[in-house]
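note to self — DONT lose this again. spent like an hour looking for the file last time. sequence + predicted structure for the chain T wanted, 231 res
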Amino acid sequence: MKSILLLHGWNDDNYTSRSTSKDAWNNRKKFVKELSKHFIIYKLNFPGFCGQPEYDKPFDLDEYARFVHLYLLNNNLKVDYILGYSFGGAVAVRYNNIYDNNQKLILVSPAISRKYSSKNIKVIDSPNIIYPIRKFFRDMYLIHIVKNPYMIYGTPFLRESYQIIVRQDIVDKVKDINKKNVTIIIGEKDQMINTDKILTELKDYNIHVIKDGKHDIANTHTSELVSIICK
């Protein structure tokens, strides 16, 4: 049986301050159970999720990729596939880019290009405002106006890491990976990722679109998703 490493998404229910679960895939148990019928499964929790220790400085995608690398190295693991869900998909891409491995990637609802209001982002990121003030107004805006759960419930480490990774568009980085090693699965109505850009710029890749699916296709279209993965 082939082995697969699962890289989870940025679900606020899994933050240390909110969750008693020790498994960041707890919110997609049915999907994992179905997948386990076809693969030997390995899972990890990223820093700050489900009790995993945090770091002094926030992470970007490359740091998360290094975290995956060290997990496999320290546990002497070699897996056949890496499945990245949402944010985990972006980490999987950077892991492949940096460490030049031979694992096949399965990117589910991958956050390699996100949807956001460019106008709001430009105001919050304006270089004309010194960083401490910019950060204060950014946090106030995202917490009290937008009511972004990632910012409301996140620890300082998670908040700052999120603010870094949400701005990293890495569609071009996928193009550095052999097409034969990448499978992309997205929901037709996913409002969290830039599906138009993914479908347009990666049109030569193996992309599956689940009809009527949104971002959480692991829970809403479990059987269809597992069937595509196992093809």
